[in-house]
Amino acid sequence: MTLATERTKADNYLWGVALFALLYCVFGFGLRAATDPDTQARFTLPVIGHALLMTAWLVLFVWQIHLRRERRIARHRANGTIGAGIAGLLVPLGIYISWAAGREFGAPFFFTFNAAAFVGFGILVVFALRAALAGNIDRHRRFMLVGTLLFTGPATARWLPMIGAPPLLAPPVLLLVLIGLPLVYDLLEKGRWQRASMAASGIAVASIIAGALAGILIGGPPV
What we know:
- By secondary structure, this protein is mainly alpha-helical.
- The chain has helices spanning 3-35, 37-40, 45-69, 73-78, 80-105, 108-133, 137-149, 152-159, 170-189, 195-219.
- The protein has one domain (3-219).
């Protein structure tokens, strides 16, 4: 297999992962919103804005991967400012909504777990943008991938209760996603696990574990 073929295969996989993240989050958040009257009653302006920003990020991420597959690098780079703006609004709004919901439900775990995902996302996006400015595209790509996959955690926490599963299952499911999907990408493109992916997954995993432990210590395991 040639290097070009390996890269094409890896690019196609990365686009598939981006599309998975988009559809999974739409499913997780959308299903809960469509079937739960209590959730619908909480459609305040911050919640709607948060949903629009998250959807915009996920759609842009899919589009950015597509542009890279098509080798439209100039357009890809030009969109970076849009992505940075979305992330800059999404992180504080996501933390605020997590805090408001956790306070309303009396569920510290809900707040700490979701807020940790947004904090981790923000850290990874900052590192990804710094890598892009430094010309380290491999590092940029991997940090963006892991940062975006963090959104699947809150989405999982939304639909687990709908099937009678405990919310405490969300962290281990997310850990598998944060480590497994980037690892497969590395194996397809480079043949081995890359340090950039290890670092990105490490930051994401640390944020999620910290958020979950904080919620358990403050309010006990979620039920």
